[in-house]
Records
---
Amino acid sequence: MLAIVCPGQGSQTPGFLSPWLEVPGVSEHLNELSAITNRDLTTHGTLSDEETIKDTAVAQPLIVAAGLIAARALFGDTLPGNTVLAGHSVGEITATALAGALSEKDSMVFVRERANAMALAAAATPTGMAAVLGGDAEEVNAAILAAGLTPANANGGGQIVAAGTIEQIETFAAHPPAKARVIPLKVAGAFHTHHMAPAVNVLEELSTSLTPADPATTLLSNFDGLAVADGTANLASLVAQVSRPVRWDLCMEELAARGVTGIIELPPAGTLVGLARRGLKGIPTLALKSPEDLEAARAFVAEHTQV
């Protein structure tokens, strides 16, 4: 069984889409997605600098678009059978689109409004996020809470992400938990915390104009790691996810429980397969970073979708 995983914010790097424009159809596809989001995703994925693509309003549509254009290049318009989809944070929108739980257009409208609303919420107070690597999980969580922060992402593989004000992050990083390292992330807000509550209100109103459908393939939720069978429930969960912690650790546990034999990560790839190598040892992974990886990816997909 194949798991297709879609990364979240902070995974983007300057110029990462440049080689993809050489793949037939990608440029046109990216132009279509740019028109929906009112963002020049081609320029942002090829020429924009690190600070520009760190901007939430740019980063989120760019990451979802990257996953969609690479998925079409790899799979065409239909995913193979015997697959399970999961996405981390904004990557859950990519997974939702690939599962058919929202149309591609609705997914890009959703991420556009999500990105804009979260950027506004983040601008209200200087906030950020930091990865905490190592240490005892209970002690790390206790230290995060004691610092006034929120454990916003439980990523598994010995990684928890803390979120809060910049001042709280800096104080916490200066006094890390025992046997742990604190690494500030390239994101411009305390996502998946109460700081994002205004964005939830925006998305609740938007959701009434969208048309959800039941997923056509297994789609895991960031809320509890379990499969979501109902399209309306999935959309409601995507809305709530903005101010609710991401439980990627539970998603990985569910992948293991379902007997996944291979994990492929869509662009901008690397983060989630890295977590899988630590949290799901022994399960083969492949990071689809550029078109040079497509041949190996097709062979990997064929191997792990055989019933």
Note: The two ends are 8 Å apart (CA to CA).
---
Amino acid sequence: MEMSLKEHNERNARSKKMLLWFAMISMFMTFAGLTSAYVVSTSRPDWLKDFVLPDAFMISTAIIIFSSFTFHLAKQAIKKNDRQATSMWLLLTLALGIGFVVAQFYGFGKVIESGYYFTGPESTVTTSFLYIVVVVHLAHLFAGLIVLLTVIYNHFKQKYSSSQTLGIELGAMFWHFLDILWVYLFLFFYFY
């Protein structure tokens, strides 16, 4: 029995979404391991007890949360075949993603200005942990920006419509995951 094109596309979409879920779960497990190591390390005698995250990290958190809303609005717009609104929301998401990265590096600069270093002889285990976790998250965010650029490229090539939204859906899933992951990390570092 031959499978219809619609059935093939549905199975293909489910397979791609399942693969993305597995990838996101494995990424989350990496960060769960890093934050667990952070918790264990807090009992070290050289652990900084008075370290406070700069406000730039709070600003970057607000930016990334807002970018999830704009990506969601892009997905909603393409479902209505509103190409102009989709373009606007995707480009705004890209600008916010870049703004998030800029705010992160600004935050790193503020940490260094406060006399805390991430590597070298003047570093502490506390700042080194912060550096590792944030850099690993930024690496994933750069992957997210590449995904977003690919979605934008495909959108301008008119590969998406109300009947073909898989690429935007997958991109949005990954972007929302990165957002949730950062909020988890921010709250962890802020309150722990």
Note: The chain has a mean pLDDT of 90.
---
Amino acid sequence: MTLQWTAVAFFLYAEIAVNLILCIPFVSAQRWRLVFNWRIWKCLSPYWNKCFFTMIMVLVVLFLDAAREVHKYSSPEPMHEAKVNSNLFDHLHMKLFRAQRNLYISGFSLFLWLVMRRVVTLLNQMAVSMENNAGLQAQMESAANAAKRHQEDNRLLKKALLDEEKAISEKKQQLKLEIESLSSQLKMAEEAVHKSHAEVEAMSRQAKGIAKEYDRLLNEHHQLQNLQSAADKKIQ
């Protein structure tokens, strides 16, 4: 195996190991996100896309070269020549086996390279989704707690309003009774005032009559005095 295909084989083994590690079930996506957020990956992130596409181009070239080699050694002409010479037949099959091996190595390397990129992307997206879900769940719980508090406040407010309405109703009833009592007292006072006015008028009329009788008696008294004085003068 030449140096380039040895490097591709080791790259394939590394890809298999990394993909297996990424697929470990008990490691959550959030932990992988913490690993992906290490400072070393942030330093390498500007070169990641360039490295990714460069490896794709290299693996595509190697895959096409391996496919060309497979087509070359599996064509009818070399096989016809190999049938004549047995050593050439073995050599040709060895070349074909190596070309097919290189084709599989480069093809699987290219496939796993794309799969690894996709797995990393999905892990990041899953971690972000889980964080968003956790944030949404916390918001929903806080909203539910706030709704419960508002419901409790509304219940207490309704209870206070009912108590206040009951107190106002009782106060209105009490005021109504007081107004009725005051109205009856006012009516009685008015009747007493009218009765007092009637008594005053009667007393006034009686006083006027007494005054007239007093004046009449006074006049008679004066007349009697005058008559008595006149009679005394005649006797003298």
Note: Residues 139 and 205 are 94 Å apart (CA to CA).
---
Amino acid sequence: MSKSGKVAVVTGGGSGIGKAAALGFAQAGYDVAICGRRIEALEPVRREINGYAGACDVTDPNAVAHFFAGVKERYGRIDVVFNNAGRFAPAVSFGDLDVLTWQEMINTNLNGAFYVAREAFRAMRDQTPQGGRIINNGSISAHAPRPGAASYTTSKHAITGLTKAISLDGRAFSIACGQIDIGNAATDMTSTMNTGSLQANGTMMPEPTFDTRHVVDALLYMSALPLVANVQFMTVMATNMPYIGRG
């Protein structure tokens, strides 16, 4: 059972923003459960947060259900879920986009997010006291695409629809759902931005990044709200990234 009285789940918790979020929730006093595809990547984080970790491929609905069952068995309830797991694909012009790449991106970024959110919703609906908060990791690309990123952009636009639908259906069960759109947080995945990223005008340009602790601060603010209040959408980005006016 939860010792703190508040339980947070972070998917994709072994690295990057997910790892930073897991550490931040633990430091804020939450019991934290993380999942990811490779248990060896999760284990150092699990030890640091003194929490629960499970190997889970979010594209497998049965694996997602099994992970959430383990969290409920360990802690008894779930209060916050950061629906974070996702992937990128190499930039390619739309006409050259491989069907398998499209399917893999949609399967991870959209279907996986749905499987996680559905299990979270069910747990929050059925627990006592009822309710909880789901925070979906959108992206700047939920609003404006990068060149050669059709599959990623489409998956992240769909997350916005998923967020709105969960918000509406969650009202009857005290389930709040919001979306955080992150632009150029400094992680291993964004390290190449310092040397240059393809822009809409066809040029390569270095892009600024910012420390992931600001993402964690935003997540903790969203999570700390009472369930009668909700941040529906929040954008946290590098001030000088070329998103505003992209294109």
Note: The chain is about 40% helix and 15% strand.
